[in-house]
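Q: what sequence does this backbone want?
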């Protein structure tokens, strides 16, 4: 197992790709602290982790609230006897869809920026001192292919995902001397309940069917198939393992060729 004996924190672990990432890390040997606002969904994923023979500890946390993040990391350190090997920042929001820039409400823009940027920054801020002290660690941030190219009608979301890549590259430079790798995975559209809500929202605005929106996404991809949560989990596993020991400050696009 690639992660035998490792301790991991996964934010946004309750649903979609976060759940797939969590169970994949556990399958490869990691004990996991699962955190999100929806603790009922966390309990379900934690059960799957325990069924794999790994430890799972649920902590409710809003990643944009610094006292909650600090308390979550402190709880993880207690559970893990002072060691945190892996941090995966999955938590995030989509924000306004099919909305031209002039029609985006300031409050909606700010919400996306805060959720996706601060929600990545705060867990890093509070986990990093432990990784520096132990001179080892892996941080994997979930950015997005909308952080690699422009994304019409999604200004706030695209801006936030470019920022996550900026955080990734900068923190990688700061932490390299402490043997801490910091990388990002950039998913394209991923087949999750969130994707279907996105398709429904676009269809409503355009007067299309949901199936037409879905097919538009498929046709935009070189491989002509939608990414699964497990595809993202596999990339996270690679970056969290020693297979990626000499990779830092980088991003892996997992998008079926959308950004080609």
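A:
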């Amino acid at each position: 197992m690639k992660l035998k004996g490792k301790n991991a924190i996964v934010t946004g672990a309750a649903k979609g790709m976060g759940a797939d990432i969590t169970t994949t890390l556990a399958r490869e040997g990691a004990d996991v602290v699962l955190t999100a606002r929806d603790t009922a969904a966390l309990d379900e994923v934690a059960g799957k982790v325990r069924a794999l023979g790994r430890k799972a500890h649920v902590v409710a946390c809003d990643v944009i609230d610094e006292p909650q993040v600090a308390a979550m990391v402190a709880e993880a350190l207690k559970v893990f006897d002072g060691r945190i090997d892996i941090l995966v920042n999955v938590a995030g929001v989509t924000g306004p869809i099919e909305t031209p820039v002039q029609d985006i409400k300031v409050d909606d823009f700010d919400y996306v920026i805060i959720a996706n940027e601060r929600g990545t920054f705060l867990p890093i801020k509070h986990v990093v001192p432990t990784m520096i002290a132990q001179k080892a660690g892996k941080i994997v941030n979930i950015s997005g292919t909308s952080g690699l190219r422009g994304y019409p009608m999604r200004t706030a979301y695209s801006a936030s995902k470019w920022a996550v890549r900026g955080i990734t590259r900068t923190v990688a430079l700061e932490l390299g001397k402490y043997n801490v790798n910091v990388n990002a995975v950039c998913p394209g559209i991923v087949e999750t309940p969130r994707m279907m809500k996105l398709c429904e929202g676009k269809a409503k605005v355009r007067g299309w069917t949901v199936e037409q929106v879905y097919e538009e996404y498929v046709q935009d991809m070189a491989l002509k198939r939608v990414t699964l949560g497990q595809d993202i989990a596999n990339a996270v596993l690679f970056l969290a393992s020693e297979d990626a020991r000499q990779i830092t400050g980088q991003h892996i696009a997992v998008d079926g060729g959308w950004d080609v």
